[in-house]
Amino acid sequence: MNKELDKQSNRQPNKQPDKQPNKQSDKPAEHLIQTGIKNGLPILIGYFPIAIAFAMMAKQIGLDFWQVVSMSMLVYAGAAQFMAVGLLAAGVGVWPIIGTVFFINIRHLLMSSALANKLEPLPGWLKPIVGFGITDESFSVLAFYPGRLKPSYALTVEMLAYIGWVSGTAIGYLAGQFLPSPLQVSMKIGLYAMFVALLMPQVRRNIGILFLAIGAGLVNLGVRSLGIDAGISILLAIVFCAGLGTIGPSKQAKEG
Amino acid sequence: MEWYGFVIGMMVVTYLPRLLPFVAVQPAKLSPRTKRFLELIPYCGLGALILPDAFLALNNPLIAGAGLLFAGLYGYYKGGIIIPVVGAMATVYLLLGIG
Predict the structure, then answer these.
(1) Burial label, B96 (beta-carbon count in 10 A; 0-12, 13-18, 19+)
(2) Cβ count near A125 (within 10 Å)
(3) What angle do CA B51, B52, B56 make, to 5 degrees?
(4) Average pLDDT, stretch A103-110?
(5) pLDDT score of A22 more than 50
(6) Cβ contact B53:A243 at 8 Å
(7) pTM above 0.90, yes or no
(8) pLDDT tens digits, residue range A121-157?
(9) Quick check: B39 pLDDT over 50?
């Protein structure tokens, strides 16, 4: 840390003294953006086939191009969009669908809280943008950034994910039927492979994390088998497991 | 036009939970317990996102499991995200071709 600061001050000796308190100068900005691209790209790849599948399903129930693309641009929530289209097709009314979407996505309240706690101080006008980009996937990638989360890194990851979702929707609507289906099917594993790949280095560091994660998975499975919607059961699983973790001997997983 | 009212309604209820923690006034200092709770969320979140859906992503849980196994082993020993993701897709693609 001290070394980094020294390097920083050597590079710009006394040139801009009032820029000094900029906390983001731990690492050069371009490096943050590069890392962001490297970690955001898997989300883009993973979102693409899912967005294609969504667009094809929405097209099938008779929605037009802009109706479908506007949904991906503004709502920007995978599971909720599938659910909404499914309910529309079943003839469910607008308000019950909006309510369902709320319940599916309320889990992001927890994820955003965790990230807000980790994020470096940032200009007020950027907060709504960082918040808009929170999804299960961007959260999972951002949560494992070592140390305080840098806004430029977070925004790069989020932007790639968004591009993947919106462009996948548009291309899926226009050309989805031309994609070979074995390829489409195998791409569906992408996001889950990403979740596993994100978890493993943490497990290697501390095996207890594996039990915590499996515990959350089992709670999710159990709650879901009662017929409760995935959005809510994920929320309950997180609250239950993270809550249980705070009861145990403290200051263990904290280091690192 | 009615459509866009509907989309904006869905947007509002999706956006609010994502936004609120960022703009809410943060207490000056969180209690250690709350901090720990927040720090554990990513691990529990990943667990709940993987189980059970990862095995249901394809019609074949075994082939899905094989893809996840590749991602898990590679992630454990080498780390990174892109190779595990692309490798898992390739594994599934190959196994679907055989099956």
Answers:
(1) middle
(2) 7
(3) 135
(4) 90
(5) no
(6) no
(7) no
(8) 888 899 999 999 999 999 999 999 998 999 999 999 9
(9) yes
Peptide bond into A121 cis (omega under 30): no
Instruction: With residue A67 as reference, give the H or E element that holds it.
Output: helix A65-74
Q: What percent of chain B has pLDDT over 70?
A: 94
Contacts of residue A136 in chain B, CB cutoff 8 Å?
A: 45, 49
Tell me how far apart the alpha carbons of residues B52 and A224 are, in angstroms, rounded to a whole number. Answer: 9
Residue A197: C-alpha distances to residues A48, A62, A73, A107 (Å): 19, 38, 28, 22
Using a CB–CB cutoff of 8 Å, tell me whether B98 touches chain A: no
Angstrom CA distances, A144 to A89, A195, B4, stand at: 38, 11, 36
Residue type for position B11:
M
CB-CB under 8 Å, A38 with B42: no
Per 3-state DSSP, chain A is made up of helix, strand and coil in percentages (nearest 5) of: 75, 0, 20
| CA separation, residue B57 to residues A43, A201, A254, B49 (Å) | 16, 23, 33, 12
Whole-number Å distance between alpha carbons of B94 and A189 = 13
Cα of B3 to nearest chain A Cα, Å: 7
Binned at pLDDT 50, 70 and 90, residue A249 comes out as: low
For residue A156, give both structure tokens.
């790069």
Smallest CA–CA distance from B27 into chain A, residue: A117
What is the interface pTM, i.e. ipTM, of the complex? 0.91
**Residue B27 carries which DSSP code?**
P
